[in-house]
């Protein structure tokens, strides 16, 4: 049985962690569509979004396992992440030499693991069908409520959780007058894993709690509870590794309450739906079950969308261009329909007059909350932790930030990508 791991996964900006294996004979071809200058990639034979954008870049790759920086010019598909090191263990990509082996990361907690006094929230139960198996790619494909899902395990380490927490605490120490927030978003495997597969993935709630109890003067935003109470709704994608905008809405609501800012109800948003969505999970698995069971993507356009002024900068805050927050108002770019790409900094000026300026450091999971905060802050800066090349503390001071939010999925906070926060402190 052919190993499909490397064939299914795309290198994301030279920092994602991949698994070594043979290539699949089957090739998926793509056509491109231009959405506000961002290239979205569509499976040519299915008419559905299979990736979330691409552009030519020249970048320097630095990972904990690759001690020598590698500079390469690549055409990069903008996944939030491919299978990270903490998910599949001990492999990394050298773009000049192919896949190389490195030391496995243990998933055992350290002796300092915090014992939480909080009770884990119970998720709303969904009906699982009879079909569930672990695919050749290492992902699970299962039947839930009559549709096929692909679930990606999430491991990470408690030690990396502590590194993430210490970096956020350092931000607060250097920005004592700024409200600092931490929001770790669980991925779909936390809530939709079929019975009998407990060893498929680690507990993301334990990772989030390990972080929460170590925060110092930082407000923790409980995205876990916010999502757990709505798992019967359309908050995660079945065919993509991201969540859905509706999940972003519930998490954004939880944050707005923590920040004590206004928050527009969902009914005020214009809902735009588009069918035929088959996302990155098909790219990873090449499963016909996923391919032949596309899903609907629901985009929510903010009530003050026409009043927003959005400016995009590069990661050095150098070149800029005027644009729109909703880059594809017909939802044709699916998860790329807002913000468009990760390797830009978005400055959003709203019609809110409350003197609050929010800086968000995130990866692409954080993108989904942004449209739901345009009624909450006067100005918003959206920065990706992987593609921001300035000292983040000084940046917050320069833009007069009143609020600073770190919004990522558990893959990042408990995995090696969380180390980007330390780089942001030291540029």
Write a concise synopsis of the structure shown:
This protein is α+β, with helices and mostly antiparallel strands. The chain contains twelve helices and 20 strands. The protein has two domains: 97 residues, no CATH class; 299 residues, no CATH class.
Mean pLDDT rating = 78
| Number of helices in the DSSP assignment | 12
Indicate the structural class: alpha+beta
Residue share in helices?
A: 10-25%
Radius of gyration: 20 Å
Largest sheet: 8 strands, mixed
Classify the beta-strand content into a percent band.
Answer: 25-35%
Distance between the termini: 46 Å
Q: Which outline best applies?
A: globular
Annotation, overall tally of beta strands:
20
The strand line-up of the biggest sheet is: 12-11-20-18-19-17-15-16
Low-confidence stretches: 1-111
| Count of structural domains | 2
């Amino acid at each position: 049985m052919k190993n499909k791991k490397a064939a299914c996964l795309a290198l994301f900006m030279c920092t994602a962690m991949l698994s070594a294996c043979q290539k699949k004979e089957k090739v998926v071809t793509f056509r491109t569509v231009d959405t506000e200058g961002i290239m979205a990639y569509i499976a040519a034979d299915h008419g559905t979004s299979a990736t979330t954008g691409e552009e030519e870049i020249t970048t320097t790759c630095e990972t904990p396992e690759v001690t020598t920086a590698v500079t390469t010019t690549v055409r990069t598909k903008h996944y939030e992440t491919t299978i990270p090191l903490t998910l599949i263990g001990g492999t990394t990509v050298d773009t000049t030499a192919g896949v190389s082996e490195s030391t496995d990361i243990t998933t055992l907690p350290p002796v300092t693991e915090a014992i939480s006094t909080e009770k884990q929230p119970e998720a709303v139960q969904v009906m699982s069908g009879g079909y569930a198996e672990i695919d050749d790619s290492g992902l699970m494909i299962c039947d839930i409520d009559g549709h096929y899902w692909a679930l990606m395990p999430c491991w990470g380490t408690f030690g990396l959780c502590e590194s993430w927490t210490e970096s956020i605490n350092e931000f607060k120490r250097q920005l004592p007058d700024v409200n600092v927030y931490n929001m770790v978003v669980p991925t779909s495997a936390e809530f939709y894993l079929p019975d009998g597969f407990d060893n498929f993935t680690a507990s993301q709630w334990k990772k989030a709690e390990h972080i929460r109890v170590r925060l110092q003067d930082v407000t923790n935003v409980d995205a876990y509870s916010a999502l757990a109470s709505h798992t019967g709704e359309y908050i995660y994608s079945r065919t993509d590794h991201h969540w859905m905008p509706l999940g972003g809405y519930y998490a954004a609501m939880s944050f707005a309450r923590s920040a004590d800012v206004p928050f527009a109800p969902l009914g005020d948003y214009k809902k735009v739906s588009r069918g035929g969505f088959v996302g990155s999970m098909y790219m990873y698995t090449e499963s016909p079950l996923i391919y032949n069971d596309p899903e609907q993507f629901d985009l929510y356009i903010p009530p003050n969308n026409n009043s927003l002024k959005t400016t995009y900068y590069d990661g050095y805050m150098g070149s800029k261009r005027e644009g729109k927050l909703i880059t594809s108002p017909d939802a044709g770019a699916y998860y790329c329909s807002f913000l468009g790409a990760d390797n830009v900094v978005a400055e959003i000026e709203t019609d809110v007059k409350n003197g609050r300026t929010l800086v968000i450091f995130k990866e692409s999971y954080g993108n989904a909350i942004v449209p739901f905060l345009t009624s909450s802050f006067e100005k918003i800066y959206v920065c990706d932790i992987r593609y921001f090349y300035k000292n983040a503390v000084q940046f917050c001071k320069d833009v007069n930030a009143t609020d600073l939010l770190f919004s990522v999925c558990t893959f990042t906070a408990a995995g090696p990508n969380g180390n980007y926060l330390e780089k942001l402190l030291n540029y």
